[in-house]
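I am still getting used to backbone structure tokens and would like to learn alongside you. To get us started, please write out a protein record for me. Start from the sequence, derive the backbone structure tokens from it, and show both lines together. Once you have written the record down, we can walk along the chain together:
***
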Amino acid sequence: MAVDFDLAGKWVLVTGATSGLGRAFTEALCAEGANVIATGRRKDRLEALAEKAGDGPGRVAPLSFDVTDTKAIQSAVNEAWEITDGALWGFVNNSGVSTTSAIEDTTEEDYHFVMDTNVKGAFFMTATAGKKFIERGTGGRVVNIASIAAFKTLTLNGIYCISKAAIAHMTKCYAREWARYNINVNAICPGFIETELNSDFFKSDAGERFMKKFPRRRVGHDTDLNELLLYLLSPASEFVTGSTIVADDGQVLG
């Protein structure tokens, strides 16, 4: 039986839509007929996404702001509500950053760089939009992008692992509190995905050696999570909330 995601005409906000998974998510949603408020800091890339969507099944409304700024989050959510005429159905907390350093060498600046984007941004985006969902009273969907780093330690990425563990547990906290409002909150925990940020590394000798440690000796593509995301945003996932779903090609097993 074919799966009908039934997202035609629904509005979804995606953070970090200017590249990588965020861009792939935006394009996948539009292909299913959903309308996307694509957010990020690089306005030119957001506008390019909107132009690419063109006259397709779904359209893109670009909205530039910084998820580390709580005042900007409030303004952006208010604007998204106006754009959608109060019909925002879901949002995807995809924005994320990382640093590479030993824990003992992690600076306060490194800490805030990672935690403000990965945790603070997702927390207040969810709380701010969720409050409007609750007031509206017709439910909604939240999908957080965590990582296998929530469950597996990664050398020289301690603060990143800590931030993603926080996202995984945050997902459960929100899901428990908002279950009575028919707001489903879930997290996708990807393994290593090749994007424009890490492509050169995975093509290098060091990257090839690194991939050999994985059960299938490969990394994912930025489109490999699309169907899972669509499912979690669609009515088909009505019975799924508070879940942290690992999608990593078995990498967490190694």
